[in-house]
Amino acid sequence: MNYKFDEYRFDFVKHRKKYFIVSALLIIAGIVSMLTMGLNLGVDFKSGTRVQVQIGHTFKEADVKQAVEQIGLHSGSITTAGDKKDMAVIQFAEPIHKDEFAKLTKAMEDKYGKGVSLQESTVNPIISRELARSALYSVLLASVGIVLYITIRFEFRFAVSSILALLHNVFLVITLFSIFQIEVELTFIAAILTIVGYSIHDNIIIFDRIRDNLKHAKLKTVQDVENVVNHSIDQTLARSINTVLTVVICAAALYIFGGESIRHFTLALIIGLIFGAYSSIFIASQIWVS
Fold first, then answer.
1. How far apart are the first and last CA of the chain?
2. Overall CATH class of domain 48-123
3. Cα separation of 29 and 10, whole Å?
4. How far apart are CA 40 and CA 135, in angstroms?
């Protein structure tokens, strides 16, 4: 069989420096955002209490803040949530006690009527630190497992390229959550681990094709290697795009119809899937070539 690896529709490898520059700029923006604004951590990752107040109609955040302060409580932040913008999320830096929650309930009922409902979530400092530590261990353990698997299945250079691409994807998701100050909850970690799984799946498809094509290629120059990579990406491009589009459509449906409790999870998933598709095509294999 005659393999023509110089036949492909687009030279992905030739423009790899441009992709690296785009990613580098996004990473720099993320570093600046993390240093200046940080993450908007939810109650899952810092001590305190979060109260969701289902008001039932639109409201002004300033009015809710005023009602909270009138009973002697100090809220860290008040945000509007819900499909109809009829829910107030009140974040307290310190855990509130039962009597304080009772006062808050009465204040909200006096302000907005008896139809108001409140839901409380409280995390103490020890639990919040344990959750943050467990989240970090989960991501690290997944990364180590990926390195070992790809090293055994392919080679160490493929593993390094995959991990760098995964870190790229994860950090860019964190970057957007930091820039737009979207609340980071425990479900965010589940989204990150899901993103890692899907991203490595895309990388393995391309790397497997590269490995297979290398068996039939006569490599004499660097250009020959680049041709194999371009040809491999071209062969798997339609599959990669169709796969991620299918999952993004499902995640978008969850974001629209899934309710407030999983909205941040699905948003992180959608962002991560898009960056994962981008990195598997334009970053991971280009790192391997470089």
1. 29
2. alpha beta
3. 29
4. 16
User: At 49, phi and psi to the nearest 5?
Assistant: -130, 135
User: Helices (DSSP H) in the chain: which residue ranges?
Assistant: 16-36, 61-70, 98-112, 125-153, 156-179, 186-214, 222-257, 263-279, 285-289
The domain spans of the chain are 16-42+127-289, 48-123
Please provide the CATH number assigned to the domain covering 16-42+127-289. Answer: 1.20.1640.10
In angstroms, the CA 160 to CA 151 distance is: 9
Query: Residue 220, SS3?
Result: coil
Q: For residue 41, what are the β-bridge partners? A: 184
The answer to whether the CB of 247 falls within 8 A of the CB of 221 is no
- Torsion angle (degrees, nearest 10) of CA 270, 271, 276, 277: 70
Going by pLDDT thresholds of 50, 70 and 90, the confidence category of residue 3 is: low
pLDDT above 70: residue 7:
no
Q: Note the pLDDT tens digit of each residue in 276-287.
A: 999 999 999 899
Q: Read off the pTM.
A: 0.79
